[in-house]
Write a structure and sequence with these properties.
The protein is mainly α. It has helices spanning about 15-25, 30-40, 45-50, 60-70, 75-79. Helix content is about 55%, strand content about 0%.
Length: about 80
């Protein structure tokens, strides 16, 4: 992953953890995006980047789908 040039936003608390978990599993953003979309989350690549950059709000429903796609519990994303 390229170093982030912009500071993280303040719209969610799960984005940075989500990116770290994704990278630890060797997943690219496009792989995660495909999993999220197949689980019913209507999302673009740009929106996924914004979530990981913490500049997009994540709903409780989004949190469940993201956790499922990453193979973790929702609370793992909140810590």
């Amino acid at each position: 992953m390229k170093p982030r040039k912009l500071p993280l936003g303040d719209k969610n608390i799960v984005g940075a953890t989500m990116a770290r978990i994704r990278l630890s599993k060797g997943m690219k953003q496009k792989d995660l995006l495909a999993k999220l979309q197949s689980n019913g989350m209507d999302l673009t690549g740009s929106c996924l980047s914004k979530i990981e950059g913490q500049t997009r709000i994540v709903t409780d429903k989004d949190l469940i789908v993201i956790a499922r796609a990453l193979g973790v519990k929702p609370e793992d994303l909140l810590g």
